Structure formats: C-alpha cells, structure tokens
Amino acid sequence: MALTGIWDVTIKTPIGSLAVVYTFDEDGATGTATSKGEIVPLRDIVVAGQRVTWRQSVTKPMRLNLEFDVVVDGDRLAGHSKAGRLPRSAVTGVRRR
Predict the structure, then answer these.
(1) Sign of the CA dihedral running 1, 81, 54, 25
(2) pLDDT level of residue 84 (50, 70, 90 thresholds)
(3) Which domain holds residue 25?
(4) How far is residue 97's CA from residue 85's CA, in Å, rounded to a whole number?
(5) Which is it for strands 64-73 and 76-82: parallel, antiparallel or unpaired?
(6) CA distance 86 to 71
(7) Total domain count for the chain?
(8) CA torsion angle for 60, 69, 80, 18 (degrees, to 10)?
(9) 42 compared with 15, residue with greater pLDDT
(10) Can you give the pLDDT at residue 97?
(11) CATH number of the domain bearing residue 85
C-alpha cells in the first residue's frame, strides 16, 4: 500500500501548527496518530488510488472529532482535516526513510 509507514505530518490549525506522527500499517486498515503524548487509533481508513481518508478523535489541545482527506504522492502527502464547524486545516507530511 502506498501509505504504509511512518509519516511526519504538520496540521496548520487556527490555533497554530501541530506536529503529528502517523503510522499506517501494512494491512491498510489500521494506524495511529501520536502528538503531545497522546496516541489515538485511526478509524475508517479508505484508500482510493492516491486519495486517502480517515477519522480520528483527540483530546489535546481540545476534544475534537477529526476527518482527514489527503492525496499521497510518493513520500509526500497533502490535503486537509476538518473538525465539525471549524474551518479546514491544511495537512502536509513526509514519510520517514
């Protein structure tokens, strides 16, 4: 799967940029996000060609349910995340080698 691996991702939110480490497992259906000491599972991962969507819930910096929509191009990804009524946040990332 084109997404498998460990990714260093930046999410540019209205309250500042967040650094998050994403791990996507080889089965394509599981993964985790790690940021600020919190590790959360990814849900509903869907890979459709280069486009990948998933959901996750976080409690830091505040309790939110997030939806992600990114496009993977080699070892880079870019797209956005959305949390309820809040504006979209830009998402960019690079796969670790």
Answers:
(1) positive
(2) confident
(3) 5-95
(4) 36
(5) antiparallel
(6) 21
(7) 1
(8) 30
(9) 42
(10) 81
(11) 2.40.128.120
